[in-house]
Amino acid sequence: MKIKDARAVVTGGASGLGNAVARHLVAHGGRVALLDVQEASGQRAAAELGPSASFVKCDVTSEAEVNAAMEHARARMAGVNLLVNCAGVVGAGRVLGRSGPMAGEFFAQVVHINLVGTFLCDKAAAAIMQHNSPGEDGERGVLIHTSSVAAFEGQIGQAAYSATKAGVMGMTLPIARELAMFGIRCVAIAPGIFHTPMMAGMSQEVQDSLARQVPFPARLGKPEEFAQLVATVFELPMLNGTTIRLDGAIRMQPR
Fold first, then answer.
1. What are the distances in angstroms from CA 63 to CA 10, 46, 104, 124?
2. Exposure on the CB side of residue 21, measured as CA atoms within 13 A
3. Cys staple from 154: which of 111, 162, 173, 229, with CB 3.0 to 4.6 Å?
């Protein structure tokens, strides 16, 4: 498959990594549907991308909303052959914090958004992709998960976040194996420290300190680099059932 033929659904597409993916796909001739809970910024992002993009307000924790949004995308683009799961929350918090133990409800919420939300989008997209006409090698579509280096080296305060990112990584292979019969691939990308809106809200001193921790290149990752890897995964059929670290060789310390 080629990027110009992409009919992509990008969750969390209003900003950050998801928006970078959408911009990259449209710039190379693809079509995208942005899914996000941020309605104003989502509408604005779609308008900036032009007629090849659309926006659907969607809470990925709602199975009904996900199914409706995916159907809307299918109808508007005459199909879906790429899903990029970028919706998520950081969910930072200590197990034993200053105000007491972490609330189970907080942990569950992070899991519901980052992990269950990814699964709900996966199955809704796959249900559509299975009906695509097979291309070379019988391929019909690609599901991409956004994991994190926190899945490998979770830091203090990342118990909930790391659990979800490890979960996203962990379900990549079994999903790839199961959907192989339909010609649908599944790959996870585990980015390191990237310059996202959340990072931009930190002081320059903090940003510089984080950048120095990256062996090479000694800087924050660019969202465009994440988007480039998404494009490579989409176009390279042998990439399947694996997790790719995109991190400049960083290995996170405990704090």
1. 16, 23, 22, 9
2. 34
3. 162
Both tokens of 137, joined, read 């090698």
Rounded CA-CA distance 125/183 in Å is 13
CA-based nearest residue to 135, from 85, 198, 195, 82: 82
Q: Which residues contact 19 (CB under 8 A, 6 or more apart)?
A: 10, 13, 34, 45, 223
Give the pLDDT score at 1. Answer: 92
Chain centroid to CA 132: 22
Rama region for 173: left / alpha / beta (φ>0; ψ in -120 to 50; rest): alpha
Which one-letter amino acid corresponds to residue 52?
A: S
Active site residue 128: no
Distance (Å) of CA 67 to CA 42, 56, 112, 200: 18, 12, 16, 33
Q: State the angle between helix axes of 172-179 and 159-170 in degrees (0 to 180), rounded to the nearest 10.
A: 20
- The whole-model pTM stands at 0.95
DSSP state of 24: H
Active site residue: 107, 119, 161, 234, which one? 161
User: Can you tell me the distance from the alpha carbon of 6 to that of 13, in angstroms, rounded to the nearest whole number?
Assistant: 15
Q: Are 71 and 127 in contact (CB under 8 A)?
A: no
Q: Confirm if 141 and 80 have CB atoms less than 8 A apart.
A: yes
206 confidence band (pLDDT: 50, 70, 90): confident
Give strand pairing partners of 85.
11, 145
Q: Quick one: pLDDT at residue 70?
A: 98
